[in-house]
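NADH dehydrogenase [ubiquinone] 1 alpha subcomplex subunit 1
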Amino acid sequence: MWYEILPGLGLMVGCIAAVGGINYTCQKLGNGGKLRRQVRHPFEYRLYRRDQMVTGKAYIAKGLEGLNEMSFKS
């Protein structure tokens, strides 16, 4: 009957969920608690490079407190 497919369906859903969970966990552990940033568009790449220049690490985002006041004076 139709319910005979439920164990196989449960196994497939479980495997797909496990892969997503393992990916999430590895990225959190490997990047110091931050998820890996997606850089698909030029604007996202500019934000990535800005964070890399300001903090030294691309996965730590800082706002204005990360900038030096002397860098704006000409």
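thats it. The two ends are 78 Å apart (CA to CA). The first helix runs from residue 6 to 30. bye
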